[in-house]
Design a protein that fits this description.
By secondary structure, the chain is of the alpha/beta class. It contains five helices and nine strands. The protein binds S-adenosylmethionine, the ligand Nc1nc2[nH]cc(C(=O)O)c2c(=O)[nH]1, iron/sulfur cluster (SF4) and magnesium ion. This is 7-carboxy-7-deazaguanine synthase.
């Protein structure tokens, strides 16, 4: 299957439980909750996106004809180091394109595989680390994973509502629960509110977007 990739870059995972870990980010083009065009933002299901995922014109991006070709590009982006190889598939929405063939190709090259997903699509098997970030108004179906990372605040999907939705899954639907302050015009207020919420509700931990703080991609 061909893959449309916006950009491919080496960095540190900036968010969540794996923050600070070296990774290659593979950002797939396209999303099912927003076209990516500013003209459509106000009418989209997901309206606060901080990312350009349109097209294949970013650093290291392009159209890759098959899994082996994309896996080779990701490996080249990582470099020679054999240990702790880590790739994060994101987007846009990675589950629109990530398949078992690409997962096998990455495992074959010694990579641990993570995804950042909005949780509206079933994942292929074999992913090592699943981060689900549900969106208010979207059809959230993926209710298990390694971490749940809720952008905060979202009218219509506050942490209490998330806990209520997850109750039937019982116990350990996710290993980690994070609130990530919404970036945008109210960022400072959102950081303060998220910190205050975590202080009062200790199941939830604060996820800052540390890559933005230190000026790396
Ligand atoms: C750009 S999304 C791509 C992956 C997938 N579509 C998703 O939404 O999880 C990557 C991460 O950034 C988060 N994010 C997007 N816009 C944000 C914003 N304005 N402030 C904070 N986090 C944001 C998402 O919730 C998600 O956890
Ligand atoms: N450094 C860094 N960490 C990230 N964690 C999740 C990101 C994403 O956009 O999916 C992201 C990103 O864009 N950069
Ligand atoms: S679901 Fe993810 S990629 Fe899609 S618009 Fe929302 S934050 Fe951006
Ligand atoms: Mg990002």
């Amino acid at each position: 299957m061909p893959y449309a990739v916006k950009e491919l870059f080496p960095t540190l995972q900036g968010e969540g439980a794996q923050a600070g870990r070296a990774a290659v980010f593979c950002r797939f083009a396209g999303c099912n909750l927003w076209s990516g065009r500013e003209a459509d933002r106000a009418e989209a299901t997901c309206r606060f996106c901080d990312t350009d995922f349109v097209g294949t014109d970013g650093e290291g991006g392009g159209k890759f004809p098959d899994a082996e070709t994309l896996a080779a590009a990701i490996e080249a982006c990582w470099g020679e180091e054999r240990a702790y190889r880590y790739v994060v598939f994101t987007g846009g929405e990675p589950l629109l394109q990530l398949d078992e063939e690409l997962i096998e190709a990455m495992h074959g090259r010694g990579f641990e595989i993570a995804i950042e997903t909005n949780g509206t699509t079933r994942p292929p098997s074999g992913i090592d680390w699943i981060c689900v970030s549900p969106k208010a108004g979207a059809n959230w179906s993926l209710r298990r994973g390694d971490e749940l990372k809720l952008v905060f605040p979202q009218a219509g999907l506050m942490p209490e509502a998330v806990e209520e939705i997850l109750k039937p899954a019982s116990g350990n639907a996710f290993r980690h629960y994070f609130l990530q302050p919404m970036d945008g015009p109210d960022q400072q207020r959102n950081i303060a509110a998220a910190a205050d919420y975590c202080r009062r509700h200790p199941r939830w931990r604060l996820s800052l977007q540390t890559h933005k703080l230190i000026g790396i991609p």
